[in-house]
Specification:
This protein is mostly helical. The protein has eleven helices and two strands. The protein has two domains: 66 residues, Homeodomain-like (Arc Repressor Mutant, subunit A); 171 residues, Tetracycline Repressor, domain 2, CATH 1.10.357. It has a two-stranded antiparallel ribbon with strand order 1-2. A hairpin with a 2-residue loop joins strand 1 and strand 2. Helix 2 crosses helix 3, helix 6 runs antiparallel to helix 10 and helix 8 packs across helix 9. About 2% of the residues have low confidence.
Length: 250
């Protein structure tokens, strides 16, 4: 199979051992992505090189630029793939949960933490380098038609929080509140990973719930307008919309 993949591509319609050029290119791209997950997950973005990734993929270096312009572009692809999987995992967990503040948030946190623990490489890719890359893109003012990476996941969390209390934006900055909660979850998860995930999952969920529950309690007791929660049907509809790719709940 490796010989087939290493076959030179002289024309888009040329076949080698019965495998079309387009298919060989696609398979090489997937091998590079999988190899990059391993390299980025172990070494981190700053230490990863195109050569590291090609060695891991067992591909000649000339094939890297067949699919990617740089290691940064490849990292964005890897990170976005993982974020998409994360959003899907959290959405599935929330769809099975009773739509109340505590249980809904608890289900989401449990899904988030389980997702990271299931593949420890995600700590480096998503929580360390992914967050850093999002900040770099923000500073550079990168355009690209919407948020991606962990910023995209934060957007989902912000939308869900807004759905519980439609008047929340008039009282506090929802973006800042969501960023603060996400930051706490991200850093506590990093510490959990550094300790080898020794603390049991439910204890980590409980520790995170203190902060999330605190915001809800503060909102309800401090602002009378927020005491009444949206209806269950509205919450379900809002939750579905929040987890649709590219959607921003209004």
């Amino acid at each position: 199979m490796s010989d087939i993949l290493d076959a030179p591509v002289r024309s888009k319609s040329r076949t080698y051992s019965g495998v079309p050029a387009e298919e060989r290119t696609r398979v090489r791209r997937e091998r590079l992505i999988e190899a990059a997950k391993e390299v980025f997950g172990k070494l981190g973005y700053a230490q990863a090189t195109m050569r590291n990734i090609c060695v891991e993929a067992r591909l000649a270096e000339r094939y890297f630029y067949e699919s990617f312009d740089s290691t940064r572009e490849l990292f964005k692809v890897v990170c976005q793939d993982e974020v998409d999987l994360l959003i899907k995992a959290v959405a599935q967990a929330l769809s099975k949960s009773t739509v109340f503040d505590k249980h809904y948030v608890e289900a989401g946190l449990r899904a988030f933490l389980s997702f990271i623990r299931d593949d420890p490489r995600r700590v480096q890719i998503l929580l360390i380098d992914g967050v850093w890359m999002d900040q770099m893109r923000s500073r550079e003012g990168s355009a690209g038609g919407g948020e991606s990476g962990m910023l995209g996941y934060s957007r989902v969390i912000k939308s869900v929080a807004q759905g519980f209390h439609p008047d929340l934006a008039r009282e506090i900055n929802v973006d800042m509140a969501a960023s603060g909660l996400m930051g706490m979850t991200v850093h506590s998860t990093i510490e959990w990973a550094r300790d080898g995930f020794r603390m049991d999952l439910e204890s980590v969920v409980k520790h995170n719930l203190f902060a999330w529950g605190g915001l809800v309690h503060w909102a309800r007791t401090t602002h009378e307008a927020l005491a009444s929660q949206a209806s269950k049907d509205d919450l379900r509809a809002w939750g579905r919309k929040a987890f649709q790719p590219g959607q921003e709940a209004a």
